[in-house]
Amino acid sequence: MKLFIDTANIEEIREISEWGVLSGVTTNPSLIAKEGRKDFEEVIKEITDIVDGPISAEVVAERAEDMIKDGEKLAKLHKNVVIKIPMTSEGLKAIKGLNEKGIKTNCTLIFSANQALLAAKAGASFVSPFIGRMDDIGNEGMNLIREVADIFAIHGIDTEIIAASIRHPMHVTQAALAGAHIATLPYKVLKSMLTHPLTDKGIEKFNKDWEKVK
Ligand code: E4P
């Protein structure tokens, strides 16, 4: 399973990319707004300079033709830019239109296996089922990943599944076991995957023992 970072914060992306674990980045309008940046295209360009992998940039238009126009403009920023399109009927039309122009899309806000199937049939390169937001309303978000992964495997669908809306490290392990191809993680989840008290304790003991023989 590949790991993406889910942020528009350049410092966070730079820090984690130095670990050598990042295969891509996802952003959304809320994440860009959180950084207080109005220069959306500049943010995306800065990210493409740091990470060499798919960088999802979301369109906010609602009509297919506008999404296609905005998507084409964003795709010109860099070859790695993937256009994030919401799961609506207009979104499906935009996915089809962009796919015909050779532009990759990531269909976002997926909350059912049928939505994922529709996005894949329309030609999406990626689908993003949202785990945390499903959990928030009392559903088991991970079941969605499992269902989509099974359906895509049974039918040989090559659209990649991005486990999104991840809230904690257990979501990452579970998404990997459930068959997600990618998990997109907030900075704080990536940081918390790194640490374990027994690792810290082990390092401390090794250092102390080594001091004794020196
Ligand atoms: C995915 O691409 C989305 O940006 C993201 O995972 C949404 O997560 P949230 O539910 O924590 O906002």
From TrEMBL:
TM helices/strands, residue ranges: none
Pathway info: Carbohydrate degradation; pentose phosphate pathway; D-glyceraldehyde 3-phosphate and beta-D-fructose 6-phosphate from D-ribose 5-phosphate and D-xylulose 5-phosphate (non-oxidative stage): step 2/3
UniProt keyword annotations, A-Z: Cytoplasm, Pentose shunt, Schiff base, Transferase
PROSITE patterns reported in the protein's UniProt record: TRANSALDOLASE_1, TRANSALDOLASE_2
Gene Ontology CC terms: cytoplasm
Cross-referenced CDD domains: Transaldolase_FSA
Cross-referenced HAMAP family: Transaldolase_3b
Descriptive protein name: Probable transaldolase
Species lineage: Bacteria, Bacillati, Bacillota, Clostridia, Peptostreptococcales
